[in-house]
Amino acid sequence: MGNVTMPKAAQKASAKPAVKPPSEFKSFEPYKPKRGEEYMNEKQREHFRNILRDWKSNLMQEVDRTVTHMKDEAANFPDPADRATQEEEFSLELRTRDRERKLIKKIDGTIERIDQDDYGFCDACGVEIGIKRLEARPTATLCIDCKTLDEIKEKQELG
Questions:
Q1: Is 63 marked as binding a ligand?
Q2: C-alpha distance from residue 86 to each of 62, 65, 74 (Å)
Q3: 95-110 pLDDT tens trace
Q4: Is the CA virtual torsion 139, 130, 30, 151 positive or negative?
Q5: pLDDT single digits (tens) 134-159
């Protein structure tokens, strides 16, 4: 096949994973409700407030790392293939950060709902969403049944 060399930017990109794992909020102690404990009491709201703040903090650190990385790695490669590889890498990072920016807004809205004592209940039917579901998806606004129906409707509409 001959002696083929990869462009420098491509070599650098292949040396590290192309997609970073998403920022996690999973580093918390699961809440264990006590028998007879009222749903979404102050202790539970504080538990979710802490989860959301930690998650937001991790996302904000990722944003800072991306900015630093893009400043440090920005180079004007003379080889068009190197430039294209670098631009594609930056484009992927920016798309990921854009999704995370939207998630940060959703987290802020969820923290606001907790502060207004409007958290943990389904927006559609009003039933309790449940501690375990909220720990799995702290920004959830629908109970599992309503979310399932919502996804079925969406599938039917989109084909």
A1: no
A2: 19, 17, 8
A3: 999 999 999 999 999 9
A4: negative
A5: 999 999 999 999 999 999 999 999 87
Here the tokens at position 46 are: 């504080």
> Is residue 107 marked as binding?
no
CA end-to-end span of the chain: 46
**Is 143 marked as binding a ligand?**
yes
CA distance 101 to 34: 36
Q: Distance between CA 32 and CA 44 in Å, rounded?
A: 9
Alpha helices per DSSP H over the chain: 8-15, 42-73, 80-115, 131-136, 144-158
- How many whole angstroms separate alpha carbon 117 and alpha carbon 1? 66
Place of tokens 């940060």: 104
State how far the Cα of 27 lies from the Cα of 35, in Å rounded to an integer.
25
- For residues 109 and 104, what is the distance between their CA atoms, to the nearest angstrom? 9
Distance CA 100, CA 24 (A): 11
